Amino acid sequence: MDQEKLKTGTTTVGVKATDATVLAADMKATMGNIAAELTATKLFRINDNIALAIAGSQGDCQTIIRFLKSQAKLYEMERETPLSTKAAITFLANILNANRYYPYLSYFIMGGFNKEAELYTTDMVGGFSEVEKFTSVGSGFELAYGVLEQNYRDNMDQDAAIRLAVSAVKVAKKRDIYTGGEGIKVFVIDAKGARELSEKEVEKYSQ
User: Fold this and answer.
1) What's the N-to-C CA distance of the chain in angstroms?
2) Catalytic pick among 10, 30, 122, 135
3) 204 three-state secondary structure
4) Total-model pTM
5) Cα(25)–Cα(53) distance, rounded to whole angstroms?
6) 136 with 147: CB under 8 angstroms?
7) Domain at 3-206: CATH code
8) Average pLDDT, the chain
């Protein structure tokens, strides 16, 4: 099939705060010029302390999520301690690198919290890097980066990081035709664990 006709897109964002890691994403799933879904979920909880933002092929991303969730459960059962963010991103990188000749068409942002905020990003063939401040992946990443670069401040608290992440996705939704949907999903990972914000909570940060 013509790959341009099957082009997909999204905008996912990760921001580190002093007391949390924030992930945000749009909710539009596209296939060519068709908006296949307007309430797509692109943020997933892996365990109590880790969440993942996805971009790329939905099927490939879902396969990776299943691998990560099962590995997190197995690790905790065997060692009686949760899988760490560093271990999770290393496991993910190994899967991607092992399939580099037939790659998963997926990019990921992983957020965690272990005494401090943790943020990583990967490419399709298993390269990963720790992010100091913020990152964005997907078709609207350039638009999101403009907002992030201009408005990020050192020592941001959780509320400020959420507002910034939501603002970055909002700008991408306005100008990137492959980013959109009915709302914005937000996950916060802090000392209390990984949790999804409600629609009302997100709306508060959108104003």
Assistant:
1) 42
2) 10
3) helix
4) 0.93
5) 7
6) no
7) 3.60.20.10
8) 93
Length of the chain: 207
Which pair of tokens denotes residue 14?
């990760």
- Distance CA(202)–CA(48), nearest Å, equals 21
User: Is 168 a residue whose pLDDT tops 70?
Assistant: yes
Which CA distances in Å does 70 have to 39, 116, 145? Answer: 25, 25, 33
Summarised one tens digit per residue, pLDDT across range 89-104 is 999 999 999 999 999 9
Locate 108 and state its tokens: 């990921």
Pairing assessment for the beta strands 128-130 and 43-47 based on DSSP bridges:
unpaired
Q: Which H or E run contains 56?
A: strand 50-56
Residue 10 annotated as catalytic: yes
List the domain boundaries for the chain.
Answer: 3-206
Residue 92 carries which side chain, given as an amino acid letter?
A: L
Count CB-CB contacts under 10 A for residue 193. 15
The radius of gyration of the chain from alpha carbons, rounded to an integer in Å, stands at 16
